[in-house]
Amino acid sequence: MAVSISVVVLLLLLTVIFMRNGGLKTGHAVVCVLLGFFLAGTSVAPTIHDGVASTAEIVSSLRP
Known about the structure:
Layout: H1 2-21, H2 26-40, H3 45-61
C-alpha cells in the first residue's frame, strides 16, 4: 500500500508541475486520470502493479 500511495503522490506532483509550466493542459490531465482508472479495472492491472512493485524494489536496493 505504501508504494501505491507514493506513486500516486509522485504522479500528482508531476502533473501539477507540468500544468503550472504549461506543458500539460487540464484536458490532457483529465485524460491521463481517466486512463489510469480504466486500466485499474482491467485484467492488466495486476501486471502493472507487479511491474511497479518490482521496479520499486530494485530502486530501493540500489546504494549510491
